[in-house]
Amino acid sequence: MKTSKITYLGNLRTESVHLQSGETIITDAPIDNNGKGQAFSPTDLLSTSLGNCMMTIMGIVAERHGINMEGTTIEITKIMESNPRRVGEIIVEFTMPKINYTDKEKELLENAAHTCPVAKSLSSELKQTVIFHY
């Protein structure tokens, strides 16, 4: 089954439609690469997808083990490199709710984050820095 349909809208902008739900995402080239920076860039989405995937897998594990992680936030920092132009590092910084997590709960959540499918699909050359604030 196909996942999405992408249309080039001109001016370095694309529209992606998720075929199952009809939801859309607009991308725009970043300012440092001839764009206007008015929407997520493709590399922003790549970086953000890592955080989304980590959070989703953590949520699955949290539900399975009765761990409350509602209100968890992530800030993503994307660091670009050149020659070739690519994402060189993604910093994923979690801020967990002010709950007294046990060491076991922390281990379960952190392992879930590090083993999400996006993290495992990215090149080993791309540095993934993951920080948890409890």
Outline the structure in words:
The protein has 134 residues and is α+β, with helices and mostly antiparallel strands. The protein folds into 2 domains: 4-33, no CATH class; 42-133, K homology (KH) domain (GMP Synthetase, Chain A, domain 3, 2-Layer Sandwich). The protein is built from 3 helices and 6 strands; from the N terminus they run βββαββααβ. The strands form 2 sheets. The chain has a 3-stranded antiparallel beta sheet with strand order 1-2-3, with no helix packed on it. A hairpin with a 2-residue loop joins β1 (4-10) and β2. α1 (42-65) packs antiparallel against α2. The termini are far apart.
Give the SSE map.
Layout: E1 4-10, E2 13-18, E3 24-28, H1 42-65, E4 73-81, E5 86-95, H2 103-114, H3 117-121, E6 127-133
Parallel strand pairs: 5-6
Antiparallel strand pairs: 1-2, 2-3, 4-5
Helix pairs in contact: 1-2
